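Researcher: Please predict.
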Amino acid sequence: MTKDMLGRKESITVEEAVRRMSGGLPDKEPCVETVGIDDALHRICAREIKAAHDLPHFPRSTVDGYAVRSGDTFSAAETMPAYLGLSEEILMGREADFVLKKGFASKIPTGGMLPGGADSVVMFEHVQTVDDTMVEIMKPVGPGENVVQRGEDIKAGETVLDKGHRMRPQDIGACAGMGVTRIDIYKRPVVSIISTGDEIVEAGATPAFGQVRDINSYVLKGMITESGGDAVRKGIFRDSYDDLRGAIAGSIKDSAMVLISGGTSVGTKDMVAGIISDLGNPGVLFHGVSLKPGKPLIGGVIDGVPVFGLPGHPAAVSICFQIFIRPLLGRLCGVAERFPQYRHMVVKAKVSRNISSPQGREEHIRVIIEEREDGLWAIPGMSKSGLISTLVKADGTFIIPMHSNGIEKGGVVEVRLF
């Protein structure tokens, strides 16, 4: 096995790392629970949702006007209006339980039910009142004009939402319109976050010299929650084999995924890879990826549970999450998005200066987007990946492919917005 100058196995490509992790997971459907539609936003449908009846279940007017038989208006014009008698007025929320006779019109509000015989609605703007018994129609209407027909929105038996669909506000509205108030959704997968390092202290503590506050577990929890998971911060553990093994083993029992922040760099305290392989099969699938930032990433599976050993730098953690963890988390959530690659907005922008990049690794560059007279420009933030401020200030990232030497000033890139 070829090794690098530090004695490690050579890094694999991002594509190969993704393939190994995806192939190492068993096909297993997430657990299902039933919730009210008020609590369904952004959750994933576990069953397809079919319409029990037509929506709407009666023909409705889309405007304020007069319900008519369209044939009675065909010759109407401003210079020679059609004269129609007035039938009874249609009230909102009431059944129009009569048949509109030929040569007559009924006043109707937006959303009102068309009576039998009527097939269209003339807008108020095109009607003049003659007296209490007659109106002038100044413009003709065709059959079905200004009307939503029964079942035109959703037909009985139609599949409205597919299994694996992520619930949006409009989807909840469709359920409400169909009278569906409770739906089966997949439970949020529990993702355990383990922080490691003798130098790490809680966010609320005052760090001594040589110590730093825990940042990564909070970043990870936010990204997990944003991606549909249920994040659990397990705490900070010393760089001790027994402590880490116990934390990881305990998390495997009650989690769908385990993320370990820190402990993946070369050195005497690098134990995470060994623990992952010791705890179950198949163990470590890769250790090291041709990626900047994020090269020391570890990926493995312990008895069907994906486990990642993440770098210690916040920028590297964020990049690794977007590339490797988010897609797997979507799978564990049961999501079946048609175009997951477009879930985050991508904009094209010109790079503001030359950027060099060594061949052999995929580099993700954090940028600030600036709008100028000639379009959008991407301003690279070349600060070290250990600085959280680089993520706070950045609007997104673009990729320099692993076989590229970089990009020249003015070159157009695709920036994936955060």
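Model: Residues 14-27+188-340 form a domain with the Molybdenum Cofactor Biosythetic Enzyme; Chain A fold (CATH 3.40.980.10).
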